[in-house]
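REQUEST FORM: STRUCTURE PREDICTION
Request ID: SP-0412
Submitted by: Lab K.M.
Chain count: 1
Length (residues): 316
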Amino acid sequence: MTTNLLIRPLLDTDTDGVVRLYDMASRVENGIGPITPAQWQGFVGRSRSVNGRDFRVALVGTDLIGLAESALRDQGSRLVRYIKLIVDPAFRRRGVGTQLLGSVLEQDSDETVSLHGHTQTSWSAGRAFAETKGFSIIESEYRMHCPSFDPSSDPVGETLVARVEEPSILAWRLAEIHNAAFREDVSFTRHTADDMLAKLEGMQLWSALLFGRTVGHAIVDPDPHSVWLESLAVDPKFQGRGIGRALVVCSLRGSMGRAASSAGLSVSSQNQIALRLYKRLGFEPVSEKLRYAASRRVLLTRSGHHSTQSRLRMTH
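STATUS: Completed
RESULT:
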């Protein structure tokens, strides 16, 4: 157990310490980082992060040696708190992760809140930590890659896919499609029009029209060397008509610069329709993350932690 450990809310002045922590962790684990100060500040500023209100940091003296990213999301029928724990490799197996998790459990009073988090399949220590605390695997998230994106067949002719230069005029409809398409997903986050506009910063938006109505959209990060399909959503009332395929083909082809031919994306193991589509288009899984989940009640019981009596030294 690490002595003289202080856990407190995230401050704006913690940016350099967080960047250093991500750098240290990424040296021993693929997929964690690194991250730049601008990227971190942009992440914290997103609506889904609630400006880092529920983030916690662990310090020994002035050294930031742990981080708990935490945000509560209302999925309509349930409340889900998404968490990510990062500990400096030099301080692992000293109870830092356990205390950070305890600080997250203090943030809610409803024991039915579900906590979700990811870990790479290759990270045995992270998987052991999650399972020891009471988390169970509920799905996998596959990172897929296509080294030379050039599908042979064309999109369906009845669907018109075009890049949207002024997304603000479609923001409410984009949110409506997103919420309808993903409402059953375990990772669902309800979006507003403002959420969609924030999500589109630095991205390209492509929309699909059917009989003059917007029925789907694709959001693409147009990296100069390998484009990334950030999001794909089709209104459930219009699914099964090849609209998803049309969006993927047109958005990725249209976003690729002369130097780019490869493309990447992430997809849930629960989304078998999308998985089959991406494989037909030449994408193959290159890595896998496991999504763990547990109710707050289970985590409190397993840890012996009592929500009315914090065992952590907190400052606010």
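NOTES: The mean pLDDT is 88.
Reviewed by: T.R.
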